[in-house]
Amino acid sequence: MTSPTPQDLDALYDIVGEKGLMRPGVHGDDLVPYETCVRYGSGQAAFVVRPATSKEVSRVLAYCHGRGITLVPQSGNSGLVGASTPDSSGTQGVLSFDRLLETQGDDASSHKQILFDEENRSVTVGAGVRLSDLNAFLELKGYVFPIDLGADPRIGGMIATNTGGARFLRYGDVRQNTLGVKVVLADEAGTELDFMSGLRKDNTGIDWKHLFIGTTGVLGVVTEAVLNVVRLPQQSTAALLVPRDEAAVLKLLLEMEERCDSNLTAFEGMSSEAIRAAFDHVPSLRNPFPGGEIPDYVLLVELSRTWAKRDSEQSLDELIEVVLAEIWEDEDAPLDNAFIGRPEEMWALRHALSEGVKHAGKLVAFDVSFRRGDLMKFRAFMAKELPEKFPNVRICDFGHVGDGGLHFNLSIPQDDPRLNDTAFIPFLREWVVQIVVEKYNGSFSAEHAIGRSNQGFYDNYTPKKVKELAAQIKNVLSPGGLGDVKLG
Fold it and tell me: What is the pTM (predicted TM-score) of this model?
C-alpha cells in the first residue's frame, strides 16, 4: 500500500469537504483521539476522513482503492483489541463514522438519524449513531435496543464486532438483532450493497448481511442498519448469589433457567478480586456483603418482564424469593447466601468492574468463551496453574456465565521487573490462549472480534482452509486496503 500524497488529501477534501477531512499538519493534536487505542498502544494516522453519507463513503473507498491507500474503519473507537486505530507507519488513513448519523427514509428527501417502525418493531439508523443516543430515543417510545454494554459504541462498530453484552442470555448478540445493513465495498467502484429490507424471514439464498457482522469491517463498511428492538422492561429484580463452591455455579444457572424461564435476563459472574478492584476505584459503590467481606465468587442474577405487574400476578420480587427458597430446600443446595436488592445498585457494581480492574495494575486482558460447562473448569485450572507459572499475577475475572463468556483479566504490579522484558506479556498471553483453545476448545475472541492484539492468535489457531476461504471472500468483496486485520 502507498503513502497518501498532498494531492490525495486534496482529492479526499473535494469529496467530503472541510468538515470531513483532518490532516496531520493542520489539525495536529485533534487527530490523537483517532490514533489512540482504548487499551493497547497507539498509531499514527496519515489523515482522518469523516464522510457524512453512504455516497461519500463510496467515493472515498473507490478513490483509496484506486490509489492503493489503506483505510482503517473507526466507529466509536471503544474496542479493546486494536482494530480501529492505524499502525505506526503513518501511511494508513482513518475512516471515521463520526458524521455517519443520518439514514434515508422512503421519501428520498427525508433524512433522519433514527427511523422508528413500531409495526415491524425495528429502527433504521446511521452507523455513526451512538448506543446511548439510540436508546434515549427508543425509551420515549417504550422500547430499547437490548445490547447492554459498559461502553458507549456507535452502531457500525457494534455490527462490525458483533457485540454481545450482559443480557445476551435473554436477547442474544448484535447478529441476532440485526435485520438489515447497507454496506460499501472497497473496490474500484465503491460498490454500495443494500440489504435493508428489514425482513425477519427471507430464505431466498445467502443471507448476505451476516458476512459483514463480526468481521471487523474488513469485508465492507456498514453505513446504515435496520435493528430489532424490544419493549422496555416494566418490572425487574436482581440478586447477588454466593454459590456453595465453583462446581455449584452451573447447577445454579440450570436451576434458575428451569424455575424462572423467560424471566431470566442475566446471569453474571464476578470474582472477589474484580469486585475488590471496583470498590477500590469507585469508593461510592455500596458494599452489600456482611462485614464488608467479599465472597470468593458472586453471581448477579436479574429477572425482568416487559409488562406492568398485574393484580393476580406474582411479582418478580416474590418470584425470586420463592425460587431461592426452593433451591435452599434442596439437601444438596448449591447456594450459600443471597442478597436481593435494587437492580441499579447491583448493576452499578457490575459495570464498575472494568474500570476497577484497569486501575489495579498492569492489565493483561482476554475476552474468551467456552461451552457453559467448561467455564468454571477453566477458572479452577487457572486458579491452580497460573500462580505456579506466573507468581504475583492476580486473576481479576468476571463475565457472562449464562452464555459461556469470560473477561479473563490478569493484573500485574506496575513495579514488577518482568514488565521490563518485552517478551513477558506476549509469552503470558500465548500461554493463556493456548489453554483456552487447545485444552477447552474455546474461543480467544468471544465478542471483541479480531484486531492487532488478536491477529497472531487468529493466524495460529484458524485452520488453513478457513483462512484461504476468508482471503478469497475478502478479495472478491473488498480487494482494497480496508482495516488492519489479515483474514488469510
Answer: 0.92
Q: Which amino acid is at 345?
A: E
Residue 189 to residue 348: CA distance in whole angstroms: 48
Q: Which amino acid is at 382?
A: M
Q: For residue range 187-230, what is the model confidence (pLDDT) as tens digits?
A: 999 999 999 999 999 999 999 999 999 999 999 999 999 999 99
Q: DSSP states of 218-237 as a string?
A: SS-EEEEEEEE-EEPPSEEE
C-alpha of 167 from chain center:
12
Q: What cell numbers appear for 467 in the block?
A: 483462512
3-state SS, residue 376: helix
Helix 372-389, helix 248-260: angle, nearest 10:
160
For residues 271 and 399, the answer to whether their CB atoms sit within 8 Å is: no
Instruction: Residue count of the chain, please give it.
Output: 488
Contact 370, 378 (CB under 8 A): yes
Q: Within the chain, how many helices (H) and strands (E) appear?
A: 15, 21
pLDDT band at residue 108 using 50, 70 and 90 as cut-offs: very low
Distance CA 455, CA 39 (A): 16
Distances (CA, A) of 286 to 191, 259, 276: 53, 29, 12
Rounded to an integer, the average pLDDT of 89-111 is 78
Under a CB-based contact definition with an 8 Å cutoff, are residues 56 and 46 in contact? no
How many C-beta atoms lie closer than 10 Å to residue 58's C-beta? 21
**Neighbouring C-alpha atoms within 13 Å toward the C-beta of 310:** 5
Torsions phi, psi for 201 (to 5 deg): -135, 120
3 state SS of 95: strand
**Using 50, 70 and 90 to split pLDDT, how confident is the model at 27?**
confident
